Amino acid sequence: MKYEQEQKDDTEKHQPTIHIRIKVGLVNINDIAQQYRPDVNVFFYFKPIDGASSLQESSTKGKSSNKFEVIKEMDGFWRPKFDFLNEVDEPLVTDESYWINRQDGTVFGRVNMIPTLQKRMNHTAFPYDRQILDVELLSNNCLFKNWEKSNDCPREVKLNVDKWHIQGELASLADAWDLNRIRLKIEDDEVELSSKASILLYIQREHEYYTFNISITLFLIIILQNWLPNFPYTSSRYNFALTLVLTLVAFRFVIQNLIPLTSYLKCIEKYMLVAFILLVFRFITDFLLILIYDMPSDPDFEHCGAEIFTFFGGDHSNLPLICVRDLQMTIFLTILWISSTFVFLVPQIWRQCWESIEKSLVEEKLLETTFWEDGKMVNTKKKTELTLSEWLHKHGGIHNEELERLPSGKNGLDSSSRNCCEVRGWTLPQHQNNSNANFFPIVTKSDLNNESKHGVECAQNYQQNGSMISFDV
Fold it and tell me: How do residues 430-473 score in pLDDT, each as one tens digit?
C-alpha cells in the first residue's frame, strides 16, 4: 500500500497540470496564401513544482498588502511550453507574465502568442464563403485541465464572467468577417505527458465590399450593351462592342488580387464568366444579323434605337426585320443578365451550410490519423478516443434544437434584446465525465436566460473592456 502511494505521488510529480482558459482573436486572414494569424491568449494557473517559497523569492520583495505578486524572473523554474499545429513560422510571443498567490502559493500565468497557421480553405462560394478555422494549441510538458477557480486571480487574467472558458473576438477583422460561434475541445495523453486544446472558429465573410465594388461595377459594364441598337451597323457599332469587351478584360485584371487563386471556379468567377459569355455572344449575334438580314433601304434610316417605341407598341410590320431581331436580342440578353445578377446577389443560394463544412473538416482530420497498409486505410486513433465526427455528434453539433442562432452585432449593442454572452460569443462550461475530452458548448437559449447579464450591464462592460464581435443572423 505504501509502495502504491509512493508510486502515485511520483507519477503526479512528473505530470504537472495547468488549468486553462483561452481568449482567441483574429489578426489577419490571407486568402491568397490560405494562412491566418490568430491572437491566442492563454490564461492558466498551477501549483509550482519547484516550491512556492523559491518563486516567492523571485517575486516583488518587501512587505506588500497585495495578494498577488509579480514573478519577475521565471528562469530556472518550471513553466508550461506551448506550440501550435500547422504553423509555418515561430509564433510571435507578445507577452509572458506570471504572478504568485502569497497565501496558497498558486502561480498564475498569461501567455499571448500570435502564430501563423496554414489550412486549406474552401473558397467555392467566395465571397459568400464560410470557414471553420482550426487552432490547435499543443504542450509536451504538462496536462490541460478546465479552469476551476473563480475570478479570484490577478487583474490581468480576469474575465468578465468567471464561468467563461473560451472567448472569440474578431477585433480589426469585424468589418470583413462575422464570428458565428467558437468551440473548444481539450485532450490529454497522460502516458506521453502531452495535451492538445482544439479551438474551432466558425466565421463567415462579409460580402458587402465585393457586392458594391465588383458586382455592381460589372453589372453596369454589361448593361451598357443595351446602347448598341443606337449605333448604325457600321464600324462604330463594333468599336463600341469591342470597347466593352476590353473594359471587362481590364476590370478582371484589376480585381484579380482580391480573389483567392484556386484551381476551381468560385462564385464570383462564375458571375464574371457569365458576363464574358453574354458580351461575346452579343458581339457574334451583331455580326450574324448583318450576314443574314438585309439592311433597311430607307435612306432616312439611322439606327434601330430610333424604332424602339414602335417595337414596344406591338406593330412590327413597318419595322425592318433586322431591327426586330436586334431589339429582341437586346431585351433577351438584358433579362438574362439581370436574372443572373439577382441569383448572384442572394447569399443563401451560394453559402454552404455549417454541417457541410464540418463534414469537410472531419474528412481532413481523418486523413491526419490514418495510413495505408496492404492497400487498406487503417485508423491509428485509439479505440477509446472519439473521432471529430463522433465528438460533434455527441455534443450536439449544429443539430441541437436547444442551440440558438445569435443575432448580428454590426449596429452596436442592443440593450433591449442582447447580453454579454451574445455579443462576446462566450461559451459556458458544462461538466463532463470524460476528462480527456472537455467540451464547452456554445451559448444556448437557456444559458442566456439563466447565466447571462442584461443588455444594459453588457453595454457598460463594453465601454470598459473593449470591442465586441458580430454574429451571423
Answer: 333 343 444 434 443 344 344 333 333 333 333 333 333 333 32
pLDDT in tens, 99-153: 998 888 899 999 999 999 998 899 999 999 999 999 999 999 899 998 888 778 8
- The Cα 94–Cα 215 span in angstroms is 40
Report the distance separating Cα 126 and Cα 132, nearest Å: 14
Tell me the C-alpha distance between 410 and 175, whole Å. 8
Residues 46 and 193 in one domain: yes
Residues 187 and 124 in one domain: yes
- Say which residue, 239 or 76, is predicted with more confidence: 239
> Of 352, 351, 398, nearest to 183 (Cα)?
398
Across the chain, mean pLDDT equals 75
Long-range contact set of residues 265-270: C-beta below 8 Å, sequence gap at least 24: 266/123, 266/124, 266/125, 266/126, 267/124, 267/125, 267/126, 267/127, 267/128, 267/344, 267/350, 268/126, 268/127, 268/210, 268/214, 268/215, 268/344, 270/344
Of 331, 348, 365, at which residue does a domain stop? 348
Is the model's pLDDT at 202 over the cut of 90?
yes
Do 249 and 286 sit in the same domain of this protein?
yes
CB 186 within 8 A of CB 147: no
Cell numbers linked to 302: 439611322
| Residue 173 one-letter amino acid | L
The helix (run of H) or strand (run of E) holding residue 89 is strand 87-101
Residue range of the domain that includes 186: 2-206+398-465
Number of domains in the chain: 2
- CA–CA distance, 227 with 237 (Å, rounded to integer): 10
**Bridge partners of 204?**
130, 178
Q: Which comes out higher in pLDDT, residue 146 or 59?
A: 146
Per-residue pLDDT at 404 exceeds 50: no
Decide which of 447 and 407 is more confident: 447
- Nearest 10 degrees: CA dihedral of 295, 299, 305, 306? -150
**Cα end-to-end distance, the chain, whole Å:** 60
Cα 470 to Cα 422: distance, rounded to the nearest angstrom: 9
Q: Closest Cα to residue 28, out of 39, 18, 37?
A: 37
